[in-house]
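Think of the structure tokens as a kind of shorthand, similar to the way a musician reads notation: each symbol stands for something richer, in this case the local conformation of the backbone. In the example below we present two proteins back to back. Begin with the first one, reading the sequence and then the tokens, and try to describe in your own words what changes along the chain.
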Amino acid sequence: MPGYIYVLFSNKDSKTYLGSTDNLQRRLDEHFAGKVKATKNRRPLKLIYTEEYMLLGEARKREMYLKTHAGRKRLKELLKNFTK
């Protein structure tokens, strides 16, 4: 089963949200409809970055890395042109 990581940008608070999923379109629809507690009050949201993996487990590993101190620095570098 393929996996994805994605980053959403909140136009409301100018912060990002990082997540992973096995069905990117379904998950984005949930975020945009306000069905996800973590982003419900941060709408409107914009998808600014994705990565696709062969396996969901690989995507989850990448998500966990990007949520570490070193990973956050790397993600900031990747996103520097997207959040301006």
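Once you have a description of the first chain, move to the second and do the same.
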Amino acid sequence: MSTTVWTVQGMTCAHCVAAVTEEVSGIPGVSDVDVDLESGQVTVTAESDPTTAAVAAAVDEAGYTLVTA
């Protein structure tokens, strides 16, 4: 198992957290998603690190933006 932390912009409420959690949880291999609304950090635990593209697509589907360096 590996854990990766991502930052998401645009979340403002519990509904946002639920939407991001649902979409990111749908990425194959993901076993746990923890969203911190205040910081915008999304901690993803998976069998192997999901690609940035996969996480970005899931976050976009939820209606938010993945912050990438």
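Compare your description with these statements about the second chain. Residues 2-67 form a domain with the Alpha-Beta Plaits fold (CATH 3.30.70.100).
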